Amino acid sequence: MIGTIHVIGAGIAGLACAVSATKAGQKVVLYEATKHAGGRCRSFFDTQLGKTLDNGSHAVLGANPNVFEYLKLLGADNELVAVEKTGCIPFVDVETGEQWTLKPDDGLIPKWIFDETRRAPGTRSLDYIRGLRLIVAGGQQTVSSVIPDVGTGWDRFWEPLSTAIMNTNANQASARLLGQALWQAIKTWSGGLKSYVPRQSLDQTFIAPALTYLKKSNAAIHFDSPLASIHGDERVTELQFRANTVSLSPGDTVVATLPPWSSAIGHLLPNAFDPRPSPIINVHYEIDPNLEYPAMMAVIGGTAQWAFTRPGLISVTVSADQDLARLDHLDIAGRLWQDIKTAFALGETPLPRHRVIVERRATPIQDPTFASNRPGPQTSMPNLLLAGDWTDTGLPCTLESAVKSGFKAAELARSQA
Ligand SMILES: Cc1cc2nc3c(=O)[nH]c(=O)nc-3n(C[C@H](O)[C@H](O)[C@H](O)COP(=O)(O)OP(=O)(O)OC[C@H]3O[C@@H](n4cnc5c(N)ncnc54)[C@H](O)[C@@H]3O)c2cc1C
Fold this sequence. Notes:
Elements: E1 4-8, H1 12-23, E2 27-31, E3 43-46, E4 51-54, E5 60-61, H2 65-73, E6 80-82, E7 89-93, E8 99-102, H3 125-129, H4 143-146, H5 152-166, H6 175-187, E9 195-198, H7 202-216, E10 220-222, E11 227-231, E12 238-241, E13 245-247, E14 253-256, E15 277-286, E16 296-300, E17 306-310, E18 313-319, H8 322-326, H9 329-343, E19 354-364, H10 368-373, E20 384-386, H11 399-416
Parallel strand pairs: 1-2, 1-14, 2-10, 7-16, 14-20
Antiparallel strand pairs: 3-4, 5-9, 6-9, 7-8, 11-12, 12-13, 15-18, 15-19, 16-17, 17-18
Helix pairs in contact: 1-7, 1-11, 2-11
The structure holds flavin-adenine dinucleotide.
Flavin-adenine dinucleotide (FAD) binds at residues 8-14, 31-34, 39-41, 55-56, 58-60, 226-227, 257-259, 262, 264, 280, 282, 359, 362-363, 388-389, 397-400, 402.
């Protein structure tokens, strides 16, 4: 019996699941708690700045095959653009004023680490080679127990990379998860470390094409529909939403793509799985639209970590900084502006109009305990599947993990139909 797939949550995992199932000819109903899709990867119109902003700048690596597959399914692959044709990443150290460009090359043998003009100044080849130990790290090891968290190689390469990918401090972050991301980049062979960003906004690249496709394909989408609870003994028989109840037919499958702290699914998760949230802070600063800067730049030696630019806007990202996340928004904006003025040589330019967004639950803290207790897609009820970046995809909690989990859930639902 071919039933309906009820996808709960219209973040990237839910959209990937809904798109993949719809493409395979299955009937899909998508339910989202809020009035918009995208979840942690969304855009909105900021009336104060008069611009569409992203909740946080997102970058994707060449080694993210599921993200590229998702965009290809939607005919939106040209909505993601490489930050530099060559895959180079500009760096600035705001403490010393030094600037350099990291020039990783393609292929299984990273030749660039043997060329001092392509790696960070003051680093040695060995600093990078050491990181390969992450790939074979034990399940209980943290990043800083595998790569010593001191020295130039740490400050100028591993620390920025680890914090950006893991959104977790290195003394807590799972070495194995970071190692998996590294292995994906190496085995991609060509352009694994190349960074891509949305052409205009997260919505235009990842969300709007999916909604257009789903609507055209007659998938039903219900916004403003928070799931309160899931009912049934051996199988799910009923979904209780805030305003209504949906009874399931025998061939129906539910794919819950909710955050792990959602009370609707909490009781379905293993007891040992108790993820704690880690924040990401973004500040969007209005700048002169005639100024031109690199699309993405790593900032080290201060509080800011990454800067993304678009005409008229510099957006600054800081991951895993719990102390910064607790500050008043004006303090956050002022503190990061000090770094940005140095990084972009803006002299004494006063703090411009800005918007601060603190995502307190950007991802779980991805420590070894989290990594070893993440549940897979299957639950005790055969017609209830889980998806989301936090489920056990073997990868850090990123867009790649979210899409991979959504595709996997759609495939499992198909095989059960
Ligand atoms: C600021 C920030 C920057 C980031 N930067 C990057 C980056 O550079 N690169 C990268 O790869 N990843 C990045 N990420 C991570 C990435 O955004 C996530 O991995 C991804 O969006 C997770 O998607 P998801 O579908 O698993 O979860 P979510 O996006 O959380 O989706 C869950 C959905 O379920 C809905 N929902 C919740 N409760 C209910 C309910 N009861 N009923 C119905 N619906 C419900 C939510 O509203 C949401 O739409 C970043 C995240 C943040 C916050």
